[in-house]
User: Fold these one by one.
Assistant:
Number 1:
Amino acid sequence: MTRFLILVCLVVSAVLTAAAAVWARTASVVTHSRHGRAGAHGRPRHHAHSHRRRRHVHHRKHRRPTHRGTGKPSATPTSPPTSPPVSNTGRIQHVVWILMENQDFGSIVSAGSAPYINSLASTYGLATDYSAISHPSLPNYIALTSGSDQGISDDSDPSSHPLNVPSIFSQLPGGASRSLEQNMPSNCAGGNSGEYAVRHNPETYYTNLGTDCRNYDVSLGATPDLSARFTFVTPNLINDMHDGSIADGDSFLKTFVPALMATPQYQAGNTAIFITWDENSGSSGNQVPCIVVSPFTHGVKDGTPYTHYSLLRTTEELLGLPLLAGAASANSMLGKFGF
């Protein structure tokens, strides 16, 4: 009996030992299998989950934000606009001045002897508070074209007042400016002749223009040439009202202004014509008319205080030029007459 029990115990021990070995092998295989699957992506499962979460956060960080109310992304902020430079408006590329003589504002505006001039003023534009700079004529012509009267107080000829100073003529060299002088006997004539008065031809006074005065300060022909960016027109002493009557000047302009408006430059819609008087008859204030004709000017009456320096400034602004001397502080006519 004792031997039988001992045998049973040995069998049971052997079975338990074998079972333990099988369990150990099975556990080892399971553990290996788990680590093998985790390592198939190069890192344990919890690392893979962490990686996916980081990618998700990274993606959300760069998503374009939605702005409620507009449904559109916000615009990139921009700098506030700067003041526009003194430059061409793009509409006016040619400027013409016609200089008349020695009339008060009230002698022309609403005067029965100037029906054509008044038709221009009512149809296009009139500056109702425009003044000349000085007396007599020449200081006004020099102020108009250089921004200063240059200390001149008489009407002497160019040999008495040689001016080596900047002017609108020096700003526009090589044919970009032109003077058209009625009845001038030869180009850039430096002395009076018949109905031509050199004091009404300011280009002849500037000594720093090289050959431009000889080439582009010419007699006014039957067909006006407005190909220059700036054209200065002086009628003769009858037609500018100096020696002639208001009716004489009105009659001249009634023929001449339509000729200007028939030029290719005006027909192209890029030309402005200014008609003004060098000075008044000597009354207080030196107020004179200034009429503005352009394709963009319609029935304007502007009461802004202007002077000859304003006309220079406006012309320089239209043509993209620096402002000379007194022009820099004068009121501009831009924005008042449709351009």
Number 2:
Amino acid sequence: MAVVTFRGVEVTNDEGRVRIDVSKGIMHTGELSATPPDHVTLDYDELIDHPIEIGTFKRLEFLACGVKHEVVLTGDCFFDEQRVIDDLTRICEYQINFFGAPAPVDHYVFMVMVVDAGYGGLEHRASTALMITRENLPVCGEEKISDKYLDFLGLCSHDT
């Protein structure tokens, strides 16, 4: 039986399970099925297409066409959280309806790493891993959509 342990994540290939044991105050996110700390995968391909993030982060939640969505942000950031929720709800609902409801997933996670420099994303089955700067997030009280925030929304829209 092959076992890999890395910072509290244990992968047992033969059983198709990931066990995540984290310290108090530390959270994890991802869209693997089952009840934490055990997450079940059908096979290796499913495992590597379901990223997991462990640490402290800000979590926003919303529903789009009945599908639970989460925006999980790692890194120091202060921004208009409700605006992100409202804008991403509209984008996700539009895409679900455009491609045909019901959505192919029952849970979707935007995993956003907020950094000093960097930009990009990688799509997964039921999540996307994104990297943006603080300037890509909306400023509280600002009504205008900045070019940087529009870039973030475009990245989210492209990688859903």
